[in-house]
Design goal:
Layout (H helix, E strand, L loop, with lengths): L1 E5 L3 H13 L3 E5 L2 H10 L4 E5 L7 H10 L7 E5 L4 H9 L4 E4 L4 H16 L4 E4 L2 E4 L4 E4 L2 E3 L3 H13 L3 E3 H9 L8 H15 L7 E4 L3 E4 L6
Parallel strand pairs: 1-2, 1-3, 3-4, 4-5
Antiparallel strand pairs: 6-7, 7-8, 8-9, 10-12, 11-12
C-alpha cells in the first residue's frame, strides 16, 4: 500500500510510519494541512491517514476540500483524540471513510487501512467521455482501442476534465489539478500542458474532444455536446 500520513506529532508519525513500513507499506509524510492537501491532490495513494488537529488547515477542512475541490475518492482514515458520537459523525459528514481514536493499536490501524484499500480496489472506476476512457485505478487511458500515453500532470488534468464533463474546468481548477496550491506565476506552463494533452487526445482522432472556452477554462466533450 502507498499511504499518505498527515500528522503534526513527529514522534507519533515516526512510530506509525516505521510500523507500516515494516509491514511492506510505502509511507509519505506531511506535518501540516496545506502540505497534506497538496500531496493528496497531486499524487495517487491507496489510503490517507489524517489527523484532525493540524496546523495550516485542520483535518476536517482538508478532507472536505479533498472531496469537493479535488474530487478525490481516496479512502481517508481520521485520527483524533475526540471520541464522542458527534465527533465521529462530523468526520463522516466531511468525507472520512473510517475513524480511529487515540491512543490506538498499530496493528488495528494497519488492519483498517488494508480493509479500506481493499474495498477501494474492488470498485475500480472507469471514466468515459465519448470514445475516451480513463481507468483511474490502473491509469490506463484509451481513445477507442488505442492506448494514450500521458505524463503524470496530464493524467491529473484529464481526470479533472472528465469528472466535470461536459461542464467547463476553470483555469484555476486546472492549475490546482497540476500544481496544487502553488501554481506558477505565468500561465505559459498551463498552456503547454493543455497543448500536450490536446495533441495526445485529439491528434488523428474524430471528433475533437478538448476545447478551450476563452476567458473561462477548458471543456472535454464531443462537438455535439457543446
Amino acid at each position: 500500500m502507498h499511504i499518505l500520513l498527515i500528522e503534526d506529532n513527529r514522534d507519533l508519525a515516526a512510530n506509525v510510519g516505521e510500523f507500516l513500513e515494516s509491514r511492506g507499506c510505502v509511507v509519505d509524510y506531511a506535518e501540516d494541512g496545506l502540505t497534506g492537501l497538496h500531496l493528496a491532490a497531486t499524487h495517487r495513494y491507496d489510503v490517507l491517514v489524517l489527523d484532525l488537529a493540524l496546523p495550516g488547515i485542520d483535518g476536517l477542512t482538508l478532507c472536505k476540500r479533498l472531496r469537493e475541490d479535488a474530487r478525490s475518492t481516496v479512502p481517508v482514515l481520521m485520527l483524533t483524540a475526540k471520541d464522542t458520537e458527534r465527533d465521529k459523525l462530523t468526520g463522516f459528514e466531511f468525507g472520512a471513510d473510517d475513524y480511529l481514536v487515540k491512543p490506538f493499536s498499530l496493528a488495528e490501524l494497519h488492519a483498517r487501512l488494508k480493509a479500506l484499500a481493499r474495498r477501494a480496489g474492488s470498485s475500480a472506476e472507469v471514466l468515459q467521455v465519448a470514445d475516451l476512457s480513463f481507468d483511474v485505478r490502473t491509469l490506463i487511458v484509451r481513445r477507442g482501442r488505442q492506448r494514450v500515453n500521458l505524463t503524470p500532470a496530464g493524467l491529473r488534468l484529464l481526470e479533472k476534465l472528465m469528472r466535470v464533463s461536459p461542464g467547463v474546468l476553470s483555469r484555476q481548477d486546472a492549475e490546482r489539478a497540476i500544481w496544487g496550491e502553488d501554481p506558477p506565476d505565468s500561465d505559459a506552463a498551463l498552456r503547454g500542458h493543455i497543448h500536450a494533452l490536446r495533441h495526445a487526445l485529439d491528434h488523428g482522432f474524430e471528433p475533437t474532444l478538448l476545447h478551450t472556452v476563452h476567458g473561462v477554462g477548458y471543456r472535454l466533450a464531443p462537438d455535439d455536446a457543446l
